Amino acid sequence: MNVAAPGKRAATRELILDHAFELARREGLEGLSIGALAQDVGMSKSGVFAHFGSREDLQLAVLEAGQLRFLQRVKWPALKLPRGLPRMRAIVTNWVEWGQEYQSGCVLLTAASEYDGREGALHDTVTKQQAGWRQEMCRAIGHAVENGELRDDTDPPQLAFEIYALMLGLHHDAGLFGFDEARRHTLAAFERLIASYSPQAGQRTAP
What we know:
Layout: H1 5-27, H2 34-41, H3 45-49, H4 55-78, H5 85-101, H6 107-115, H7 121-146, H8 156-177, H9 179-196, H10 199-205
């Protein structure tokens, strides 16, 4: 028996997945073609199917790979900072930089628009991923409230929604007007948003 075979198989699968991820960035998950992917990696279609039993299995694997890359770039580095606003700012800054790296196409955002009105495993996976990230944002916001950095009446789901809306604006404007301008506007809008939730803001509006 060739003891290296399992490792080689895993490496081949990762190679296919990397190419599939890049293809999905340009064409979306629905544009992911087994034929184009096989040609891209120099394999037959049957060779690709040997690693992914179906096109949907491949699409799901690409979604999982995209989520892992997102967490590696956005969430995990931010965990090194203290809970509260420092960590929130790091998450948002990392999220913006993720937008720069993937301004030509973010698989996760594209998938949200591709499958929002459908049923099935891909829709369910996208919904689960997006809901999970929203919960992560709510947790970070909750820590800032606990620290007294945000007002006690802050609604974490509402603020998480508003931050997410800024990121959608970032991706929209980056493609039209350039990333640097979009990043400047996004970060400035985030600071204004956070300032509106500060305890000092609440005191200024109190009678």
